[in-house]
Amino acid sequence: MTTAMNQQDGTNRTPDTEQLVDLKCVFERPQALSDKPFHYCPGCSHGTYHRLIAEMIDEFGLLDRTVGICPVGCAVFAYEYFEVDMIEASHGRAPAVATGVKRSLPDRFVFTYQGDGDLASIGMGEIIHAAARGERITVFFVNNGIFGMTGGQMAPTSLLGQKTTTSVDGRDPRTTGHPIKVCELLSSLEGVAYLARVPLTSPKNINTCRKYMRKAIRAQTEDVGLGLVEVLSPCPVQWGMKPGDALHYIDETVVKAFPPGEFVDKLESPIKT
Amino acid sequence: MPAKMQLTKGNEALAMGAIAGGCDCFFGYPITPQNEVPEVLSYEMPKRGRVFVQAESEVASINMVYGAAAAGKRAMTSSSSPGVSLMMEGLSYIACAELPCLIVNVMRGGPGLGSITPSQGDYFQACKGGGHGDYHSIVLAPWNVQEMYEFPALAFELADRYRCPAMILADGVLGAMMEPAIIADNAPPPTVPEKTWATNGRNGRAHKNVVNSLVIDPYGLRDHNLKLQAKYKKMQCETRWDTRDVDDAEILVVAYGISARLALSGCKLARKEGVKAGLLRPITLYPFPTEPIAECAANKKRVLVVELSAGQMVEDVRLAINGRVPVDFYGEMGGVIPSPVEICRKIVEAAQ
Amino acid sequence: MDLCQIHVDRCKGCELCVEFCPKHALEMSEGRNAAGYHPAVLAHPDLCNGCALCAEMCPETGIEIYRRQKRARQDATDQG
């Protein structure tokens, strides 16, 4: 259902006016999102982030010239959910694959979609060097502090004390180090044009995420450099929490280790929409 | 400008051959003994409006190739043994996703960090897959600078025809040696088939394209494997080989690459000593010239296989001959190169 | 027609829409959908004002929102 509907039964007709009223669809699936139901667990924000990316592809009119690169991890099937050309990369190498695509086809919009195991663990080399080279790519990074797909093992982004299936007594910094803060780490690289972090925990934060995503996309389309938006996302199943509680946990606890905000913004002009 | 004979280094010839072969994008990481390839391409590619990227690692290189090949471009990388080992995961993905591309391995001594001296120790890796899963790359083995120049175009053509990776398996001698070769200064651009499967943005296409090597359903993955195997069977018709002085020979020497040149000199010396020896040189190592070797060996007294390895291709030669003729092996490792005199001695020994 | 249209078969019962609905118009159903989840339903359509916060929070993009608007004169009749 994509167009405004005529009122059939009259229940929505405002009684105190004679004027006819139509129903207009104000929130629907973006065109760039396929009809396939997500395979993600209940309450997981991957679906939300997918929707936001699809909204952006629609908003910027990029459906016909986008190439997306999906990761290994929970989002390994992401190629099924977007109506754009997609490439499935090996674990952590999406920024290298994106480099190959973007350098070959500089006028296309190229994005990677990566989790924290993919980007901050096995693929740390690729993201750092893509950022250092200032590749004109946009990185949508999902940080949920755990390896979701493989069964809840510790991630490089797991919080100190966080219990996972490979840190059953809680993450101990003496043996497993400290969480890696990707935005802070990348912010020293000159090739980065835009960096921001936002928790996907409320309608307000989701809207902030949209604002950040627009800038990360413009970093590429306006030829400034690499853009990256890190979302703090819940993993209710592997965290052992109800979806709502997982969002509260992010707002109360996770943001202390991963402060939200914009870290780099080299875009000069205001948002063109 | 017409092609002309010029004194050229193997690695430089390969780089110019890649340009002549229509290479759109090169991604690579420095490693000896192939460094002239990225060095030449780093200035020859941009001035033609083509892509050169020095990657942060061989792992990144092969994945950049994956991306550019997925985008429908002629993409390549070049490396040497340890670097090629790092590319094996990516190569397996490329083979499964059926992307055409070129990987050059200018082999050096191994295992491990080994040496920077010539070797042929990567035959198994190149020809038997190398990465995980059931797959093959087309493998071409040049034996002189001329073929270093000509094979990139051939490799791209075969890779496009079969939608598979192609590898040029050279070695440190071929990369570093200089000899006259006919190099075309401005070769006409090759004809590249249309790649309707490429992930290059829909641009009005009714459907999206997906490049992928994940087939989660076991029957689906089996069917995809059967499709790959059918393709490998079909590409057997691309088998290439060369023979020298084999018709009257009593000893057949089988060798590829630089070993074949040494072996040819050895055969000539042996003839002077009264032993009729001839050479069969596989040009494609995959597909392997199994039947030509079996036919050629049928009326010979013995077969001698010469390699710069502990004996890798010799296994395929033995499978081809299947016990009908005795097969001897002579190999050197670690960058030690046998002289034609030593090879002649092995031929003469075999004849006794 | 209700302003909030929930695609019952996309619902995985995460309850985020219920939690974020400022009007408490949504509830979890006792019944199950095709995938076996208890889906969210618009229990009190009269309370719904089409604010779309439920749709915004739904990870499945499983909710469509409609709003009332004055009918454009002629052209609306050939739609729907």
Concise account of the structure shown:
The complex is a heterotrimer of chains A (273), B (352) and C (80). By secondary structure, chain A is of the alpha/beta class.
Helical percentage of chain C: 10-25%
Derived structural class of chain A: alpha/beta
Instruction: Look up the CATH topology of chain A.
Output: Rossmann fold
Query: In total, how many domains does the architecture of chain C comprise?
Result: 1
Q: What's the mean pLDDT score of chain C?
A: 90
User: Tally of extended strands of chain C?
Assistant: 4
**Major sheet of chain A, described briefly?**
7 strands, mixed
Shape of chain C: globular
Share of residues in helices of chain A: 25-40%
**Stretches with pLDDT under 50, minimum 5 residues of chain C:** none
Record the strand order, biggest sheet of chain C. 1-4
CATH superfamily of chain A: Thiamin diphosphate (ThDP)-binding fold, Pyr/PP domains
> Oligomeric form of this entry?
heterotrimer
Q: Please identify the top-level CATH class of chain A.
A: Alpha Beta
> How is the largest sheet of chain A built, in terms of strand order?
3-2-4-5-9-8-10
CATH topology of chain C, which one? Alpha-Beta Plaits
Radius of gyration of chain C: 14 Å
Quick one: which chains have the greatest interface? A-C, 45 and 37 residues
Q: Mean pLDDT of chain A, nearest integer? A: 92
Task: Walk me through what this model shows.
The complex is a heterotrimer of chains A (273), B (352) and C (80). Chain A is built from 9 helices and 10 strands. With 273 residues, chain A is of the alpha/beta class. Chain A has a single domain, classed as Rossmann fold (3-Layer(aba) Sandwich), CATH 3.40.50. In chain A, strand 8, helix 7 and strand 9 form a beta-alpha-beta unit. With 352 residues, chain B is α/β, with parallel strands linked by helices. Chain B is built from 13 helices and 15 strands. Chain B is globular. Chain C has one domain: Alpha-Beta Plaits (2-Layer Sandwich). Chain C has 80 residues and is α+β, with helices and mostly antiparallel strands. Chains in contact: A-B, A-C. At the A-C interface, strand 1, helix 1 and helix 9 of A face helix 1, helix 2 and strand 4 of C. Strand 3 of chain A pairs parallel with strand 9 of chain B.
